[in-house]
# Entry
Amino acid sequence: MDEIELVERLKKGDEEAIREIMRAYKNRIFNFILRIVKDREKALDLTQEVFIKAYFKINTFKKDSKLSTWLFTIASNLSRSELRKRKIIDFINMLSPKLLVEEHPGNSSGIEYFLQKIKPDYRIPFILKEIEGFSSEEIANILKIPEGTVKSRIFRAKKTLRNLMEGR
# Structure
């Protein structure tokens, strides 16, 4: 079933359409949110909230964008709002990753561990590009920022990741 037909069905109140949308996107949305908020339960709640908002705000969907872009925009906004609520301070970026691993050997491993050390402004575009496969233009639409800013943030995320992984 194509996105346009699903959106039209949802606009007409077809509840099966939202179920189909959820089946198609829930795992990607959940994983995206989880990488941002770092809390499984909160990520589950926010994922549900994405689809609730999509259901009630479907009339604001613009047909000139993709449904996935719109859903990830909602997910990004809800995730950012959650981070603001928690007043997360980015001082963790200044700590040595080696020190953190030694002190907390049970922490997430590999790239996921280092991803959590990157500022959300850099981490979110990086995840959308490198993990979710969105283009820079789509990311710009999702985050409501210029495409050049997206590219710059992805570059900075990669540079920060490289430095963290090399222990600098």
About this structure: The radius of gyration is 17 Å.
